[in-house]
């Protein structure tokens, strides 16, 4: 019928018609290409132990057969139907690449695997050596874990012992996982040279086979951070006393040794550096002007600090600036860093019986050299004692002014003239004008949400419980109870530990809003101290745009549980 219908056409025309006709009558189907992937591409197994089967994922066309090149080692095979690799190796094998090919009607696809076979084993890192800084929290978030090379392990042992590791580093060892975690709190060297402690970790496999790995741990101190605050000048023939003493910063580790840095000029004649304390003492014998470089060293490294020394033939009148701090002698961590003669010194009138803050005004020499006798610093008029007055004290030999300011009922803006005796006999005395402005507290706090609160500045929180959420016996605190009362005109708040036993506020897990002064968050620690709970004390500074500020003290006690909270 077909040939009769198209009789008389040329052969080429007939072939063309046949092709077009067949295309219209039949849909051409193209099979999809296979697509495979092994999730575990690096396979490390022990010899003489059955391996955990490794399976491919197939996301493409139909697969009729799997093959692998080169040939798998004795005891290990691939299932040609589903691509599963399994078995029990009888010989070891160095890491070797194998290519698995999946074949089907639509073509082929392949994936590459790296296979190694060995005795059971594990390691810690590539070298087994680890260096940590004292106090780091990196192992709290990510413990140091063994990398299993072959086999599976059910238990680990540490030699000398897990207790020894804790005693020498502060870290802990998990015998089930082999992990080392915690916070390193103990230095592994007491000199300036880093020293590692060495441990042997023994792992027991599921087949009761034992193998070991060696680990070396070094805990170094925080890098030295210090300064010399002296900015005055010395005089030929006059002993420098203790004015050239380094001040260690809060970010510093312990400084094991001081030395004159290699590139520094030598100390002026008559002066010497104590390598343990960093104090420079002696009596200069000749006039000079030098900037020496002192190096502080510990296992964390070193810091070089410049110290300008001017030695005059004749005495210069001593001059100072004051630094307001919460600690005696501290001229670094300050509430007001540079109070020069005639500047306003802002103090806070005693706000109540709870939140008053003791402050220290610490002098820093910026010219000449002050005497250190008991009456070297004198004050006119003298500070009035008593809670209703200034209630400050001037220390005669150091010039430190300290105290818990009173109510300033007599005069809230007193001016005091401080005379500073010269270290050189007959030398001109120096002077400092202290202009005090005592403000009524811009703000206070009222902790109104806790059970049994007797003082408005005390907060009783619970470890791991949000401070504003009630749970069991803990009622939670209101927003008003966690925020300052008053504070009109305050543009910035700062919170600082008021003593060395209280940690930085950020380390409590709580949040302090520097714009509003509000406390929020969830404590991540507690104040347990043996069988008791201690208070952590903090001073809050609220500052206005004109630079004036007042201070208020709050106290925290954080319990382990709500049950213990209910017993206070």
Kindly report the average pLDDT value: 90
Radius of gyration: 38 Å
CATH superfamily of the largest domain: Immunoglobulins
Dominant shape:
elongated
Question: What brief labels describe this structure?
Answer:
4-stranded mixed sheet, 5 domains, Immunoglobulin-like, mainly beta, disordered N terminus, single chain, 568 residues
Description of the molecule:
- This protein is mostly beta strands and 568 residues long.
- It folds into 5 domains: 36-118, Immunoglobulins (Immunoglobulin-like), CATH 2.60.40; 121-220, Immunoglobulin-like (Sandwich), CATH 2.60.40; 226-312, Immunoglobulins (Immunoglobulin-like, Sandwich); 319-439, Sandwich (Immunoglobulin-like); 443-565, Immunoglobulin-like, CATH 2.60.40.
- Helices cover 6% and strands 40% of the residues.
- A hairpin with a 4-residue loop joins strand 15 and strand 16.
- It is elongated and about 105 Å long.
Topology record:
Blueprint: H1 2-5, H2 11-25, E1 36-38, E2 42-46, E3 56-58, E4 65-69, E5 76-78, E6 85-87, E7 93-104, E8 107-118, E9 121-123, E10 129-133, H3 138-141, E11 147-150, E12 153-159, H4 162-169, E13 172-173, E14 180-181, E15 197-205, E16 210-220, E17 226-227, E18 234-235, E19 247-248, E20 257-260, E21 271-273, E22 280-282, E23 288-298, E24 301-312, E25 319-325, E26 336-339, E27 344-348, E28 359-367, E29 377-380, E30 393-394, E31 401-403, E32 415-420, E33 430-439, E34 443-445, E35 458-462, E36 484-486, E37 490-497, E38 510-512, E39 519-521, E40 528-529, E41 532-533, E42 536-544, E43 549-559, H5 562-565
Parallel strand pairs: 2-8, 10-16, 18-24, 27-33, 35-43
Antiparallel strand pairs: 1-3, 4-7, 5-6, 7-8, 9-11, 12-15, 13-14, 15-16, 17-19, 20-23, 21-22, 23-24, 25-26, 25-28, 28-31, 29-32, 30-31, 32-33, 34-36, 37-42, 38-39, 40-41, 42-43
């Amino acid at each position: 019928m077909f040939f009769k219908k198209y009789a008389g056409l040329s052969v080429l025309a007939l072939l063309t018609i046949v092709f077009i006709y067949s295309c219209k009558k039949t849909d051409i189907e193209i099979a999809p290409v296979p697509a495979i992937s092994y999730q575990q591409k690096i396979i490390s197994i022990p010899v003489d132990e059955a391996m955990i089967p490794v399976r491919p994922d197939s996301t493409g066309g139909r697969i009729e057969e799997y093959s692998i090149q080169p040939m798998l080692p004795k005891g290990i095979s691939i299932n040609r139907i589903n691509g599963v690799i399994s078995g029990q190796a009888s010989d070891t094998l160095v890491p070797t690449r194998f290519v698995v090919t999946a074949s089907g009607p639509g073509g082929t696809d392949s994936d590459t695997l790296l296979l190694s076979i060995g005795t059971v084993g594990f390691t810690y890192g590539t070298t087994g050596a680890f260096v940590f800084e004292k106090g780091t929290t990196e192992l709290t978030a990510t413990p140091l874990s063994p990398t299993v090379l072959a086999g599976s392990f059910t238990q680990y042992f540490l030699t000398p012992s897990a207790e020894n590791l804790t005693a020498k580093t502060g870290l802990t060892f998990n015998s089930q996982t082999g992990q080392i975690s915690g916070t390193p709190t103990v230095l592994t060297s007491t000199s300036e040279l880093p020293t590692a402690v060495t441990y042997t970790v023994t792992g027991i496999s599921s087949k009761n086979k034992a193998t070991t790995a060696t680990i070396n741990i070094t805990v170094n101190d925080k890098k030295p951070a210090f300064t010399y605050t002296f900015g005055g000048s010395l005089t030929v023939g006059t002993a420098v006393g203790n004015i050239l003493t380094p001040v260690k910063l809060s970010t510093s580790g312990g400084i094991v040794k001081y030395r004159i840095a290699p590139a520094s000029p030598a100390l002026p004649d008559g002066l010497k550096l104590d390598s343990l304390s960093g104090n420079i003492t002696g009596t200069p014998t000749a006039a000079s002007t030098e900037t020496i470089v002192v190096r502080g060293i510990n296992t964390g490294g070193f810091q070089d600090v410049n110290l300008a020394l001017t030695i005059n033939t004749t005495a210069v009148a001593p001059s100072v600036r004051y630094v307001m701090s919460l600690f005696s002698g501290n001229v670094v961590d300050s509430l007001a860093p540079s109070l020069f003669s005639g500047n306003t010194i802002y103090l806070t009138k005693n706000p109540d019986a709870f939140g008053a803050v003791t402050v220290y005004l610490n002098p820093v020499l910026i010219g000449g050299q002050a005497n250190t006798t008991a009456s070297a610093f004198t004050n006119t008029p003298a500070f009035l004692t008593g809670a209703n007055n200034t209630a400050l004290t001037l220390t005669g030999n150091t010039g430190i002014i300290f105290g818990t300011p009173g109510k300033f009922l007599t005069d809230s803006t007193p001016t005091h003239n401080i005379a500073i005796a010269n270290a050189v006999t007959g030398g001109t005395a120096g002077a400092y004008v202290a202009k005090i402005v005592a403000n009524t507290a811009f703000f206070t706090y009222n902790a109104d949400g806790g059970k049994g609160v007797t003082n408005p500045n005390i907060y009783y929180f619970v470890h791991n419980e949000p401070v504003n959420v009630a749970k069991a016996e803990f009622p939670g605190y209101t927003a008003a109870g966690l925020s300052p009362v008053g504070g009109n005109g305050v543009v910035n708040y700062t919170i600082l530990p008021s003593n060395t036993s209280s940690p930085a506020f950020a380390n409590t897990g709580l949040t302090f809003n520097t714009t509003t002064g509000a406390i929020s968050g969830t404590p991540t620690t507690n104040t347990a101290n043996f069988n008791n709970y201690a208070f952590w004390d903090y001073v809050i500074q609220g500052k206005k745009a004109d630079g004036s500020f007042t201070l208020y003290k709050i106290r925290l006690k954080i319990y382990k549980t709500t049950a213990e909270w209910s017993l206070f």
